[in-house]
Fold:
Amino acid sequence: MQLNEEQQEMLDGKKGVPKKKAMEILTKLGEIYGAEKMVPVTSVHMPGSSVVVAGHAGTKFVENMAAEKGFFSPFTTLNTGACDLSRQENTIGFPEDMVEMQKRLTGAYEKMGGCTLHSCVPYLNGNVPRKGEHIAWGESSAIIFANSVLGAYTNREGGPTALAAALTGCVPEYGLHLKENRRGQVLVDVKVLLTATEEFGALGYYVGEICEERIPVFTGIEKANLDQLKMLGAALASSGAVALYHIVGITPEAPTLEAAFGGLQPQQEVNYGEAEKKTAFAKLNRTGEDSIQIVALGCPHASISEIREVAELLAGRQVKDGVKLWVMTAFPIKALAERLGYVKIIEDAGGLMVCDTCIILAPMKTVIERDGLASLATNSAKLAHYAPGQWGFKVHYGSAAQCIEAAVNGRWNLK
Ligand code: F3S
Structure:
């Protein structure tokens, strides 16, 4: 690989141990993928920021980097952590040793200049790359949003490579950093009118399974708001490993069908009609069990408009005794929701605003056992996909309104 002078000095150890180790990781990665050079990145989003993922070894590694005076040059935000650091008390009751370890990990990142956002929606919280910017992001739902909706260029970074990018300010130029690799591969003709947000999640879930790592191009979608694009991408990246999608006439690299495919022919054509939509919803509702113990909204972390919807649906009502309602979001969005009175409405009704963490990346086992949580309702296809494997939940999937009804009644689709 060709390195510029500064990159070579980092590799030679002239800029300190953390940058040397980081450059060794990146040059090795570049060699594996046949990159010719490094490309500077303007932003990093750090996966593995939860101690549930990092564990003792990962936490120690990051602490060592901080002790050796590693420092992040690009703006770097942290992905979702393992507990709600915005609260003085350990309200949810996660194991104290995990809370302590999370504080150590967050502290080490902060010492290196990391922005301790702890959220999977950095793009709603100040880390907002523009079209054509090269970035190094982890967290599948954030990666696909950055590539598809913002038109930024990122590969799917893991913990070590994102950390290396933050320390050096560059990544090897391969994969989605190259324009020719961003062309669509699978044509998806959507033949049903999509209006509700959960319909976008179901579409993503259906198509992700077919595409695996390939890039879908959607036609037939007339409009989609930010929350819907967020849910579509998160679902595509859950049932599949999709890192980029195009919607003709909506996303920035797809002004036309021809532009989306870069003049090439699709490898496969898929129709998405009523039958496929029904299949997608059936796959996401994999239980006949009607009783619900926990309702979780905000995966990816809820936007302020999603929190407003929850507050409107809950106003003047009460969550059923013994049922939990979690609304998961980022700390700055919770602060805004507090100012707007939404947090009060949700918590007066018996719900809980949870920030910095989520059901998948928190140490939920003790909470699940303590509170006998078995069935979960959500409006997130991503959460519906991961909750059974990660924590053994039986899952119902539907709209935010259906989820709030489940929270109030303790049952799914109570007639
Ligand atoms: Fe975010 Fe956790 Fe879902 S990181 S995308 S809320 S699984």
